[in-house]
Write a structure and sequence with these properties.
Helix content: 40-55%
Largest sheet: 7 strands, mixed
Structural class: alpha/beta
Order of helices and strands: EHHHHHHEHEEHEHEHEH
Strand order of the largest sheet: 4-3-2-1-5-6-7
Number of helices: 11
Radius of gyration: 17 Å
Strand content: 15-25%
Number of domains: 1
Distance between the termini: 15 Å
Length: 207
């Protein structure tokens, strides 16, 4: 059977949550209150993201330069080498934004990655686009569950790797789950079978 690894970006491929760090560091006052509305599920990711990025007055070049300071998680390069050697598919699935995700991945010259994320374009202000949002759910900007389901419909055995809120629905539909942080806690609470990991070296030992 074909195998695909679907990998979250912020806090999974990167050591820190880049998107949150951008908002926390660069947004003007009011971003915390907007974030709390999201935590309380009163608004979805798309509305939360647009409102918070409206408070960022820096352009795309500034954001890309800012993103270059973030480090890749330990073992990710070795993980890519191993799974590509076996001919497996690797998909980066993020509820973050291409303006910093592409910058970080391009800097490391990672190849053969399919990237599914939201878009952020600067033109005297930020315009965010959410092209893979579930119309019925509306909580996440990028529905990772639908991506996992598409891969399974294409006869892939899907391995999901993640750490946070936007990974919860997707992991339920995967064939195997590697989880840390908030996703690990969710899997434990919901009794979802999973493998715990801290770095990609842990995942390499499993596979």
């Amino acid at each position: 059977m074909k195998k695909a690894f679907v990998v979250d970006f912020d806090g999974t491929i990167t050591k820190e949550d880049v998107g949150f760090s951008i908002v926390r560091t660069l947004a003007e006052k009011g971003w915390k209150e907007i974030g709390q509305l999201w935590l309380d599920k009163k608004i979805g990711t798309a509305e939360c993201g647009q409102k918070q990025w409206n408070l960022i007055k820096h352009d795309d070049e500034y954001i890309r330069n800012f993103a270059r300071n973030f480090q890749i998680s330990s073992g990710f390069e070795e993980f890519l080498e191993a799974v590509h050697k076996e001919g497996y598919k690797v998909v980066v699935a993020s509820d973050g934004y291409d303006v910093y995700i592409n910058e970080i991945l391009d800097k490391k010259e990672f190849e053969d990655l399919d990237i599914y994320c939201n878009k952020a374009v600067y033109n005297n202000g930020w315009k965010l686009s959410f092209l893979n949002k579930d119309r019925e759910c509306n909580l996440c900007g990028n529905c990772k569950k639908s991506l996992v389901e598409e891969l399974k419909n294409d006869d892939y055995e899907v391995y999901y790797i993640g750490d946070g809120y936007s990974d919860r629905c997707a992991c339920i539909h995967a064939d195997a789950v590697f989880a840390k942080s908030l996703l690990k806690e969710y899997c434990e609470e919901q009794k979802i079978p999973h493998y715990k990991f801290d770095t990609f070296f842990d995942i390499l030992r499993y596979i």
